[in-house]
Every structure is written in structure tokens, then in C-alpha cells.
Amino acid sequence: MKLITAIIKPFKLDEVKDALKAANVTGITVTEVRGFGRQGGHVETYRGAEYKVDFIPKVRLEMVVEEAVVDRVVEVIVKSAGTGKIGDGKVWISDVSRVVRIRTGEEGRDAI
Amino acid sequence: MKLITAIIKPFKLDEVKDALKAANVTGITVTEVRGFGRQGGHVETYRGAEYKVDFIPKVRLEMVVEEAVVDRVVEVIVKSAGTGKIGDGKVWISDVSRVVRIRTGEEGRDAI
Amino acid sequence: MKLITAIIKPFKLDEVKDALKAANVTGITVTEVRGFGRQGGHVETYRGAEYKVDFIPKVRLEMVVEEAVVDRVVEVIVKSAGTGKIGDGKVWISDVSRVVRIRTGEEGRDAI
Amino acid sequence: MDSAGLVWVLISSALVLFMTPGLAFFYGGMDRRRNVLNMLMMNFYCILAVPVLWMVLGYSLAQVPFESDFIGGFDAFILQDLVTAGDGGTLATIAFLGMFAAITPALISGAVAGRMKFGAWALFVPLWLFIVYVPIFKWVYGGWLGQRGSLDFAGGTAIHVNAGIAALAAVLVLGRRRVDPAPPHSMPLVMIGTGILWFGWFGFNAGSALAANGQAAQAFMNTFLAGAAAGLAWIVVEWLRDGRPSNLGAASGIVAGLVAITPAAGYVSGIAPIAIGAVAGVACCYAVRLKTKLGYDDALDVVGVHFVGGLVGSLLIGFFANPTFFEGSFSAGIFYGGSTKLLVEQALANGVAIVWSFVLTFIIMKALAATIGVRADEQAELTGLDLALHSETAYHD
Amino acid sequence: MDSAGLVWVLISSALVLFMTPGLAFFYGGMDRRRNVLNMLMMNFYCILAVPVLWMVLGYSLAQVPFESDFIGGFDAFILQDLVTAGDGGTLATIAFLGMFAAITPALISGAVAGRMKFGAWALFVPLWLFIVYVPIFKWVYGGWLGQRGSLDFAGGTAIHVNAGIAALAAVLVLGRRRVDPAPPHSMPLVMIGTGILWFGWFGFNAGSALAANGQAAQAFMNTFLAGAAAGLAWIVVEWLRDGRPSNLGAASGIVAGLVAITPAAGYVSGIAPIAIGAVAGVACCYAVRLKTKLGYDDALDVVGVHFVGGLVGSLLIGFFANPTFFEGSFSAGIFYGGSTKLLVEQALANGVAIVWSFVLTFIIMKALAATIGVRADEQAELTGLDLALHSETAYHD
Amino acid sequence: MDSAGLVWVLISSALVLFMTPGLAFFYGGMDRRRNVLNMLMMNFYCILAVPVLWMVLGYSLAQVPFESDFIGGFDAFILQDLVTAGDGGTLATIAFLGMFAAITPALISGAVAGRMKFGAWALFVPLWLFIVYVPIFKWVYGGWLGQRGSLDFAGGTAIHVNAGIAALAAVLVLGRRRVDPAPPHSMPLVMIGTGILWFGWFGFNAGSALAANGQAAQAFMNTFLAGAAAGLAWIVVEWLRDGRPSNLGAASGIVAGLVAITPAAGYVSGIAPIAIGAVAGVACCYAVRLKTKLGYDDALDVVGVHFVGGLVGSLLIGFFANPTFFEGSFSAGIFYGGSTKLLVEQALANGVAIVWSFVLTFIIMKALAATIGVRADEQAELTGLDLALHSETAYHD
Ligand SMILES: Nc1ncnc2c1ncn2[C@@H]1O[C@H](COP(=O)(O)OP(=O)(O)O)[C@@H](O)[C@H]1O
Ligand SMILES: Nc1ncnc2c1ncn2[C@@H]1O[C@H](COP(=O)(O)OP(=O)(O)O)[C@@H](O)[C@H]1O
Ligand SMILES: Nc1ncnc2c1ncn2[C@@H]1O[C@H](COP(=O)(O)OP(=O)(O)O)[C@@H](O)[C@H]1O
Asked: How far is CA E185 from the centre of its chain?
């Protein structure tokens, strides 16, 4: 089991979700996050005073998937989330030693 | 050290927290998330137009615990978070190689 | 590749971010979370009725970094996030097997 | 009605209309995020359904003919006696009273928050309007209770005591919520509601003079002072008792004071509004705790604020009524040389309203419970009434 | 103007000023989080720019000399004919009309939401004011359309039909948004806007009597009843058709009813406002779906609510006008013994307004598109207009 | 007072009461999420405490006997001279002035936001009311400054300059916040406050005529035009200087213009309100930057908007006062054939108010600092005043 975490641009969420659905990913957990990176932040101005906002809105997806499909899923994310512009985000993968479905107590492949 | 991540239904948070407290879990970090899964989303209607909301509110718990207690903690979560209805959520476990308490710099078992 | 996750006090975010920037961390993803721990919660009072709020606002940082810099980064976080008071938070480290930059498809060290 | 009086009644009517959204925000801010739209909808529904009902039949039953002591009739069905607009005085009065009819059931919504079927509420409002509100209104204004000498300037008995006790009956039938009460989801929304309520209440109370005269001016002054004094009293109690004064305390105190001065606004003067406000602020601040002790689930404290505040204000008229100041022909209160007669009449009028309202509301709710059901289903209550009952949720990206 | 009339017009003017922020919240709540400030800014801009333009030249062109049939002139440039304040009546009327001029272009902002360059909007407003609003206003009030006998009490034709059809022309030039529509980011904000709009609309409609008299009182009553009936009608349709009644339905219905009664408010009475409101509620509830079928992107349904609602109300005057009730000298509607003449005049006046407004708005937008451009750039549209166009975002910690 | 005048003063009073919540939202929206309730509470506290103080003694000291030049006395203690309601004129005037007394200290709260102990604020308000506001009010209205010929229609000197300079004194004692300023936590809340403020300001300014006459109408018109012109001027400066116009700029400009026209509203006419508004919009837009250069921490720009705006407006009376237009007996401004006498009197009155207010406010704050302390503790400031001082937080689920 692998955990794929992806940081993407917020307005890409629907597209990525549809692409993942099409690729048979059955579960995703999504978090609103703010990111700091190469993209840099932006400046907002209030009564002439500038506020540097370093963190910009991003969306974080996490999904636990079987090892076998990891490469395909990553590819799908990269393709559907990419705009080619700076700030598109990252994907990273880590190990999961156990997964349980709360409703049934099922574990492993059956749980996702 | 293990990291337990659990996705549960929002209205179960207090119950799960109390159960974990009773099971001597001393620290939890909670995030409001939105989930996509078997449960499906819902439809909202505004001026007669339907909006399909695919992501439904969930709560994500993460807690770093000692390996020895992982099974018990998972069991507690599964029991307290379960309603038997679809969408109850998942629990997954991954490895943590190091933990530090910021206040003291303590590491490992002392840090959690 | 390692994933460093840190839970800190919200009002320390800017300081920690600046310290990390100074330590050449190039990317951070930040989430508003609520934490439960030794610090305990607080009580709010509405029309004389007390509401125990167990979860208090925290900020969660995650950053994927090369193994070589992990120790330095942790040190920077501990130093900049610490107030010496209870509730300062935790840092934990886990493995990441692969990282991809969405914009370019680059992997590994080039991706972060 | 002279033209200045007409302007006063019209603008007061607009102010009272504005109070219902104000009440919706006051209540809605206190509710959970997932139930706020249901709360708003229960209130807005009252200003959709009641105006139509009032124009068609409510006004007629509640007022015409003026000589009847117990109930009006069908003479003014769809206001058919109005053949010309005339000087507008009659029209303005009917509109003004229609605003009152609309906000009164809305007050009850705060008690039943978080668990009532919207369909049941949609039926409850017209039933309650005709069965509970209209008769009590008639008895108090021009009917047998009013004729005996009891005083209710802008609706302490007819509106606040009435709605407050009805709220108790309603929650007794409805039962407790399945989830624990939660802190207000948006205090700024509560304070927006509070600001609108106070603003509108000047129309509610001072407009009830139905003329631009000294009585209106003193009612205005009383509305200013009683709201302030009660808010101050409430936060002082909080400061001494709980350690800190709060916005919700200030807001609740303001509303308690406004409720209490409502029946008295055109009859008391001088220091009386401050006294009445202060007493109401303290009394309601303690009364809202009764629900925990007695175990009824009055979600947003309609009993503690409207019933108790209204009753306090109504009874204090028996002490503070000052006919000399107004050059009026009502009885004097005990502190102004009167006998206990007025106090007794106040008690009687409220007693009658309480019994009628409680019993009939209880019956209406029981009847609804037995037929279409009054409780939303468990899933709706746990995951949010907004989505389950209205297919919408309050906040999005 | 007598002093009671002056008070009535002044307070009505303040109420109408308050409507523009109300409209901003109504629209802004429906918009996305990342575009809400742009929406508010488009509305607030109207109450910054238009008052100045109105005082300098707008009033003069729209009214003076009163005898002219097609357009005024420069006689009242910067109100220079006013050498003394006098009894204030002229000043109050100019201010009152200025409020109307300010809110009319603001109505259009709901249609172009989420994609228009702010610089283009900043130019559009004054151009539209002088080229579209001022002539139509003159024709309807005192000019050739009004003299033929058509009726428009508070701006059904001159304001709502006009702005509604202009909204259609504007979005046809502007094109569709690049992102799918989203649910309202804050329904409580929508309801705050709704409450303020209804409250202010009493000034809009009843203030248009420009006197404190029976006509003002009935216009007030109509504003109360039509808003309620239309809101009720809309949620009943929702309940039957979509399964559940909603807050946005109630709010939209209220606005639709208020729009529809606007032209009729001083000419109809009795049960008519309920009928007009109910028809408008149902009609607009279905009309907002046209955009999906016909494919124009009217973001917040200005066409479906203001154009359709205004037209419905304006045509129904042809059936419900009741001169006897007002002791007025206008023609009677078909249901009150009149011929079809009034209905024909209503149709003609609206037809003229529709053609003029649609064509000229289209030309203005095309000219802006060809010169400075009307669309915000793609990046701004995707990531949020607030930051891109105003360097600010709505919510922070 | 005739009955139309009474209606005008009563509704104006209600409008001014509504301004304090408006101000609370305007300020509260600009504050951080964790401090917003403290901000609201500082404002609401003023409409709880001041009405009571005003009725008990404030009015008496500020006005009665009218002949006194420096300070009133105890003759109207608890308004004891009122034995009957009469025509309501006196009552209405007292209520109206009470609303002004309540909002004036509230203005100061924006400067001390984010760090003041609530207990200190609770004492500051009554002390400041009696020591600073009451004497200045008396001198300006009927006292020695007014008698010398200086003009202050609705409180430019007595309210805005006074509160603005007091804000400076207060923050100099209080010191800087420990955390950097942050962007507004809710711009929609700021705009809700702005809408309410403008709406209410029509009562503030036009109500100050204390009659329904031409002066009231022109004051109304001026309030309309100056708010608009100043908002426009501010966003034009932003557009040219910062690249983009913003909502906060529009809102700040509106308030700056309303502040500036306040002293002049009943004395200027024609194009003057636009000129005064435009000057104030530009001046305040630059003045808010002074705090960064000079290093005082005026959190929400009370000095830059109220002090500067009030002073600009008050001095411009010396140029624009137009007695002919109002058929009034005050001096003409320089542009209307007057000498520099009026300008000198304006400068003198403001100079006196500035010195008195600054010095006494400084002393009050120093005294509070030395006794009960004025700063919230560090932990409260870092983690949020709402929880630490009021046991409540603004938003929940
Ligand atoms: N090393 C990292 N660890 C965690 N998150 C990161 C890291 N680097 C970038 N991110 C996240 O990815 C987002 C995009 O990264 P950025 O460097 O701005 O652009 P790009 O992805 O095009 O290189 C950031 O806003 C941040 O949320
Ligand atoms: N593979 C997955 N990876 C990450 N989160 C998941 C995954 N599957 C489900 N989830 C999360 O768990 C929630 C519940 O899952 P769902 O499939 O709807 O029901 P159930 O848990 O009963 O199978 C989802 O809303 C989502 O947040
Ligand atoms: N075992 C844990 N797993 C995950 N998060 C934790 C854990 N323990 C603490 N936390 C997080 O760290 C925060 C601070 O922890 P706490 O125990 O209160 O104080 P301290 O860090 O000083 O020991 C908590 O609010 C919670 O968010």
C-alpha cells in the first residue's frame, strides 16, 4: 500500500478528481492548504500599505492506493494538474503498512 | 514510532476523541478535510440548478504513537468512529523515523 | 527524501517560515489544524454556559527535503517555533520514496 | 391620521419588517454552521406567509369590528371595506400590525432550532397565527383584557410573553436535540442581527403610538435607555459571576431590555426605563440558565429572554405607569400614586395569555406530531438541516 | 412640498441609498469567495460615481426643462437654478432621483459578475447612465411615453426592464465565464442583502409618491404584500418541483415580487399586489432557467429576475390599475372596467425601452471591447478577480 | 417642535443609533479574526453605558442651562425638568444628542484595537465622556466657541476632530501592538459596516437641522455628494498611485467624506460638498500613511480619517459657507464674499478642541495606566483578545 500526496492548484481540483475517477481511484481525501515555494507569494494593498502574502492557496490530495497502480496514478495527476506554469505543485509517495475500513474493519486491498 | 491517520465523519469527532483519551492517546492533530469515496456526494439546488458536490466534509486525525499501542488505538478508532453506514472512513498507518517535542527538544517516546 | 511534518503555534508561523527560508528550504505546505495534547483546551462561556473547547488552533507544516538536510531543518524549526511554553508542538519525520514536480515531471532532488 | 403621523407609522412599519431578518441573523449566528439556513428560512418564511394571511383574513379577525370583545369577524376579509386609499392612515395601521403578526411566530423559531421538520413549521405558523395570536391580540387590544384596564403598549403580553410561553410548549412536544448545543457559529452575524433589532425596535415601540407626538418620543427614549441599561446589567452580571463580559451577553441583554420595555414604552418615563431594563437584564441573565436545571431544550433561549423579559416588563408597568407625564387616562402605577389594581390587571392579562398560548400551542404541536410529524429525521439532525431540508449549505468557496 | 412630505422623501432617499450596499451583499454572497470583492466594488462604484454625475448633469438632462419630450438640457447643470434651499422639496426630489440613478446600473453588475475588467465597468457606468438611462427616464417620466398614458410608478420600465435587458446585451458581448458557476459562497450574506433590499424598497416604492398620502400608504402596503406573495410562490414551486424550499428561492422570490410591484405600486390595490407578486414569483422562478437553455451567461440572473419581473409587473398594470381607489386620473385596467388601451401603452413603453436599452448597451459594450477591452485576463478569472483587480482578498485570519 | 420635525428627529436618532453597530462592523471587519469580538464589544459597550450616563447627567452638563458658556450644571439631572412629554420635541432632541455622545468614544476604539484591556476601556469611556466630550460639546454648541461665530453643524470639531486627536493621545500612552498589522479578516463585514454608516449618517447630518426644512434637505444632499466624491477621490488616488482601486479604499473614502461634510452639512451648497469630499478623500488617503512615518500605532486609522477629515471639513467651511442659500445668519465663507474671519474662528475652535482633547485624553490614559493598567497581557495579545477578555471566539462550526 502506498500513500500518494499531491499539492495542486485549487482551480484544477475538479479536473484532477475526474481524471482520477476515470483511472479507478476510489477514494481521495482533500485538504485546503496554503503553499510556499518557487512561485512566490503576492502583494495585497490595504489603505496604501502593502501586505506580502507568502502563502498561496493550494489543495492537497491524499489517496492510499495499491502499489501496482502508483505509477499510473501519478501520471494521471501530473497530466491533469499541470498547467506548465510555476506553482503547479508536487506529488510524493510514501509507504503505508496497514489500511482499515472503519465501517467493516476490512484491511488491505479490500479496505480502499 | 508510527503515524496513524484516520478519516472519520465530523459528528463522530467528540466520541472518537473521548475514546482515544480513555485509551491514553496524549496527542492528536485534527484537520477539516473533504472526502471523495464510495459514499458519493450530494446534490445542492440553487435557483433550480443542481450542483453536484462530490466532496463531503470529513475530519482527519493524525497521531504519532508507539508501535506497541498501534493495534489498540486502531481498534478504538474503528469502534468509536463506526456507524455501520457507508462513508465511515479509513485508518492507515505509516512509519515515523523520528519525533521531536519542540518545547524541550526531547525525542522519541518522550516526545509524544 | 524525507517528509518533515511540524505542528506549531499559529502566531509562530511567520517566524518559522522566515527561518526555514533562511535555511534554504524552498517549499512548504501549510495547513490550519486543531490540536489536542498536554496543553489542554480552554473554556468559552456563552450566556453563562461553559463550552469546553478541547482542540486549539495549530498550524501544520510539511516539507519534503533531502535526507542530508533533515537534521538542520529540524533544528531550525525547533529553535524558531519554540516559546518554551506548553503546546509548542511536535516535529516528525517519515520516508518518501518518490517526489515529482507536476509542472515539469522532474523527480527526486530536482523536484523539490 | 395627519401626514406626519402617517410618515411615522410608515417608516416604523418598514423598521419592524427589517426586524425579522434581524432576528434571523441574531438566531442564525447562534446556530451551527450546518443549520443556519434552516434557522434563516424559518424566520423568512414568516414574512412570506404572514403578510398574505394577515391581509386576507388575519387583520379582520384580529380587529374588525372594533366593538367585539373576543374575536373579530369577516367584515374586513381581504380588506374589502377599503374603497379608497383615503389619507392612508388605515392602510398604514394595517401594514404596521401585519409586521407585528409576522415577527411574533418568528420569535418561536429560536426555541425549536436544529430539529424541526420544515413542513411542520410551514403549517405551524398559520395555525398558531389564527388560533393563538389573533385571539390574544384581540383581547389585549380593544377586547376584554384591554377594557379591564391592563396595559400593553407595543406587545409585551400579546407578543413576547405569548411567543415565549408558546416556545416552551413547542419544545416540550418537540423534545431535545440529539446533539449537544454548540457555541455560536458566527458571533459577527449575531451582532449584525442585534444591531438591526435595536434599530428596528424604535419603530416597533415608538411607532405604536400611531402618531407623531410626545408619547412616541418618550417611547423612543425608553427604547433607547432600556436596551442600554439591560445590556449593561447583563454584562455586569457576567463580569462579576463568570469573570468576563461578553458580546453575546451584551446582545442578549439588549434584546431582554427591549422586550421588557415593549409593553411599557408609552406608559413610563424618567428613570423607569433604566430600572425596567436593569431588572430585565439581570432577570433574563439568570433565567436562561433555568433550561439546564429544568431540562427543556429551548435552543436559543426564547423562554429565558422573551417570556421572562416580557413578563418582567409587563408587571413592572404596575409600578411605573405614569399617566400624568403622558397626560393620559390610564391607571397610575404603585410608585406614581396608584393602587395595586393595575398590577393585578397586568398579572391577570398575562396569566390569561400564558394559559391560552401554552395550552393551544401544545395542542397544535401535538396534532402536527400525530399527523405529519414534527421532528426532522436523525440523519438530517446529525449531518445538517440545511442540506437535508433545503438542499443548500451556507458557505462555499 | 409640505414638511411631512419632505421627511418622507428624505427618509425614502436614505432607504434607497442603503439598497445599493444591500444589492452588493445579495450579489456578493452569491458569487465565489475569490470574486466577492469585485462584485461589491462594482456596486459601490455606482454610489461613488453616479451621485456626482447626477448632480453635475444627469438630473438636468433627465428632467429639465420639464416640458421637453425627449431629453432635458443644461439648464440645471450643477443645479445652478437653485439659489436658495427653499422648503427643501426640490433638493429632496433631486437626491431621491439620484439614488435611483445610482442603483440602476448596479443592477447590471450581477450579470457580468466574475469576468469583467474593472476599468471597463468604470467607464461603462457613466456611458450607460447618459446614453441609456437618462433618455428612457425622461421618456417615461414626463416625456413622450408617459404622456401617451403608460404608467411606471417607481421604475419598472425605466429601471428594472431597462437594466434587465441591458444585462442581456452586456453578457452577449462579454461572453461566458471560463469556469463553471459555483454555489453561493455565503448564503447569510445573500440574506443580509435581501433583508436590506426589502427594507429599502419601501422607500423606493412608497417614496415615489413624493408625498405623505394615501397613495404612499398603498404603495407601501403593495411592497409588503407583493414581496411576500412572490417569495411564497417561488418556494412553493421549488417545493413541488425540486422537492425542497430554499433560502435562495425565498430571497429570489422576494426580489422578483418587489421588482414586479415597482411599476404598479401606486396604481393597484386590494388583492392585486398578491396576484402580481405570485405571478412574478412563478414566472421568474422558471425564467432563471432560460439562460441554460438559451446559453447566455447571466451570472446572477438579472435577466430572469429584473427583466422578467419588471415586464410582468408593468404589463399587469394593464389589468389591475384602479384609479378609483386612488382618486387618480390614470386609465383603469381591464379588471377594473378599463379598455385594452392601457395594456397596449404598457407594452409600447416597454417595447421602446427594451429596444433602446438593448441596442445602445450592446453598442457601448462593443465599443469598450474594441478599445480598452471588457474581459479580465484568464489568469485573473481563474485565480480570482479580487486579488487581480483590487489587490485585496475577502477573508483572512 | 412641529410633528413633521419630530418625526425627522426621531428617525434620525434611530439612524444614528444604528451607526454604532455599523462602526463596529467597519472596524471589526478590519481587525483580525481573533480580536474581532473585542472590537465589537468596545463599540457596543458605548451604546450600553453612554445612554444611561447621558440621561442621568451628561445631557445636563452638556447643555443646561443653555446660557452658560463653559459647562452646564445639574438642573437637568435625570431629566428632572421634564414633567410631561409635551410635544416630544425636547425628548427627541435629548435622545438625538445621546446617540452622538454614544458614538463619539466608539470612534476612538479603532485606534486602540488589538491591545487594550477591556476593563480600562470600560472606565475610559465614562471618564472621557465627562472630561473631554461634554465640555467641548458645550463650548461648540451654545458655549463660548460657538458664540464667537465658529460653525459646526453636526460635529466636525466636537466629534471627529475631538475623537481623532484623542485617539492619537490614547495610542501614544498605549504603545504599539506586539504583532504586525494584518489585512482585514472580513472585507464583507467592513462593507456591511460602511453601508450602515452611510445610511445612518443621513440622520447624523440632516437630522442635525432639528427640523424638516430646506437646511435638512441640503444637509442630506451634501451627505450624499460628499461621501460619493470622497470615495471616488480615494480610489482614483489608489488607481494612479498603487495601480488598483480597492473596496477598502472606497469604504475609507466614503467615511472620510462623510466626516468632512459633517461640520459643513448645513452651511454649504451647490458644488461645495463635492469639493469638500474630494479634498478630504485625497487628504485622508495620504494621511493614513503618516502613522508609518511617524511611528504611532493607530490601528484602524482614526487619526488619518477622523481627525484629518474632520479638520479638513471644518476649515473648508471658512471658504464655502453660504448663508444666502440657507437664508441663515452665519458668516459667509471666503468663496462666497466673506472675510477670513470665519476661517480664523474655525481654526481657533479646532485648535482649542485639539489641545483640550489631546491633553486631557493623555492624562486620563496615563492615570488609567498607572492604576489599573491599560494593556492586555502579552499572551492575550498573541493568542487573541476575544478568548482572553471575553471568553468567546468569533467563528465556530
Ligand atoms: N519541498 C516541498 N515540500 C512540501 N511542499 C512543497 C515543497 N515544494 C513545494 N511544495 C508545495 O508545492 C507548491 C508549488 O511549489 P512551487 O515551488 O511554488 O512551484 P512548482 O511546483 O512549480 O515548483 C507550493 O506552494 C507548496 O505548497
Ligand atoms: N483510498 C483512499 N485514500 C484516502 N482517503 C480515502 C480513500 N478511500 C476513502 N477515503 C476517505 O474516506 C472517506 C470515506 O470513504 P468511503 O469510500 O466514502 O466510505 P467507506 O469508508 O465506508 O468505504 C472518503 O470520504 C475519503 O475521505
Ligand atoms: N502524538 C501526537 N501526534 C500528533 N500530534 C500531536 C501529538 N502530540 C501532540 N500533538 C500536536 O502537538 C500540539 C502540541 O502538543 P502538546 O502536547 O499540547 O504540547 P507540547 O508540544 O508542548 O508537548 C497538539 O496540540 C497537537 O496538535
From this structure: 23
F292 contacts A47? CB cut-off 8 A:
no
User: Closest by alpha carbon to D284, among D268, D272, D298?
Assistant: D298
Separation CA E229–CA E254 (nearest Å): 8
Q: Is the pLDDT of residue F80 over 90?
A: no
Range list of H helices, chain E: 3-30, 36-53, 59-63, 89-109, 118-128, 134-140, 144-147, 162-174, 187-206, 214-242, 247-261, 272-287, 290-294, 302, 308-320, 323-326, 341-370, 378-383, 385-390
Cα atoms in the Cβ-side hemisphere of radius 13 Å centred on E18? 32
Q: Checking DSSP bridges between strand A98-101 and strand B90-95, what pairing results, if any?
A: antiparallel
CB pairs < 8 Å spanning C and D: 28
Q: What are phi and psi of C45, to 5 degrees?
A: -125, 125
Residue B56's closest chain D neighbor by CA? Answer: D383
Of the candidates B44, B47, B51, the beta carbon closest to that of E252 is on B47
Condensed to tens digits (0 to 9), the pLDDT of residues F218-229 reads 999 999 999 999
Indicate which atom in ligand 1 lies nearest the CA of residue A85: 22
Pick from D300, D192, D242, D248: nearest CA to F386:
D248
Band the pLDDT of D81: cuts 50, 70, 90: confident
CATH topology of domain D3-371: Ammonium transporter fold (1.10.3430)
Are F18 and F200 in contact, with CB atoms under 8 Å apart?
yes
Residues of chain B with pLDDT under 50: none
List the one residue out of E241, C48, F337, F73 whose CA is nearest residue D181. Answer: C48
Model confidence pLDDT, tens digit, residues E55-79? 999 999 999 999 899 999 999 999 9
| Distance of alpha carbon E55 from alpha carbon E76, whole angstroms | 9
Burial of A12 (0-12, 13-18, 19+ CB in 10 A): buried
Chain B partners (3+ C-beta pairs within 8 A): A, C, D, E
Residue F392 touches chain C, beta carbons under 8 Å: yes
Which atom in ligand 3 lies closest to the alpha carbon of residue C40?
A: 18
- Is the model's pLDDT at E81 over the cut of 90? no
What is the whole-number distance in angstroms between the Cα of residue D381 and the centre of ligand 2? 23
d(CA C53, CA F88): 51
Residue nearest to atom 3 of ligand 3 (CA): B63
Terminal CA-CA length for chain B: 10
What residue type is assigned to position C91 of the chain? V
* E289, three cell numbers: 432557467
User: Are F265 and F154 within 8 A, CB to CB?
Assistant: yes
* Averaged pLDDT for residues E235-254: 98
Q: What is the CA radius of gyration of chain F?
A: 20
- Is D25 in contact with E216 (Cβ distance < 8 A)? no
H helix intervals, D54-117: 59-63, 89-109
Q: pLDDT tens across A17-62, in order?
A: 999 999 999 999 999 999 999 998 999 999 999 999 999 999 999 9
Q: Give the pLDDT confidence score for residue E114 in this predicted structure.
A: 97
Segment E199-218 mean pLDDT: 98
pLDDT higher than threshold 90 for residue F136: yes
Mean pLDDT of E78-98: 94
Atom 26 of ligand 3, residue of closest alpha carbon:
C35
Question: pLDDT, tens digit, for every residue of F211-253?
Answer: 999 999 999 999 999 999 999 999 999 999 999 999 999 999 9
Tell whether pTM > 0.90.
Answer: yes
In a 13 Å sphere around the CA of D11, the CA atoms on its Cβ side amount to 32
- In whole angstroms, what is the distance from residue B112 CA to residue B104 CA? 11
Query: Is the CB–ligand 3 distance for residue B101 below 6 Å?
Result: yes
DSSP code of residue E329 = -
Angle between helices E36-53 and E3-30 (to 10 degrees): 150
